[in-house]
Specification:
Helices cover 75% and strands 0% of the residues. By secondary structure, it is mainly alpha-helical. It is extended. 4% of the residues are buried.
């Protein structure tokens, strides 16, 4: 079996990272915490770069894909198939999560005390109506939607732009 050179390089780099991290932790445990705090700069930069590319990637992929199809019926048929696949994948992932939670029972041996009934989580929960959802799906500005990485708004704009 022929492997891609990039895949091999990534796997070797991952293994080297694991070995280096474990070696540093075993040989210099006092400095390991400081090193971990310093290395978070690289992870923050990497995650910001990933977030930066998501909006333009989604926009250009959808616009070019829709524009190349040409026929509105084809776009609708593919849209329905995409929605079906999305719902099936969501259902499968939720089912897998439920099965794994029941099998592995995470947190069983922790013996944590339950919070009081009146304890606040700090998260303000509000009900969303259909009107609020539809209003939120339509972007006020495509620039604002891309700046805040509102993917649903970018998808809606991309569909209109591509058509």
């Amino acid at each position: 079996m022929k492997m891609n050179k990039l895949t091999v390089a990534i796997l070797i780099a991952m293994l080297l990272g694991i070995v280096t991290g474990q070696g540093y932790r075993l040989l210099a445990p006092a400095q390991a915490a400081g090193f971990a705090d310093d290395i978070t700069l690289l992870t923050d930069i990497f995650l910001r770069l990933i977030k930066m590319i998501i909006a333009p990637l989604v926009f250009t992929t959808l616009v070019v894909g829709i524009a190349k199809m040409g026929d509105t019926r084809t776009v609708g048929r593919i849209g329905v198939k995409t929605l079906g696949w999305f719902m099936l994948a969501s259902l499968m992932s939720l089912t897998l999560g439920l099965v794994m939670v029941h099998l592995m029972q995470p947190g069983v041996g922790l013996s944590l005390s339950l919070p009081d009934d009146g304890a606040s989580s700090g998260v303000a929960a509000t009900a969303i109506s259909l009107k609020d959802f539809v209003t939120h799906a339509i972007p006020k500005s495509v620039v604002e939607a891309m700046a805040t990485n509102e993917i649903l708004q970018i998808v809606v704009f991309s569909l209109f732009f591509g058509l």
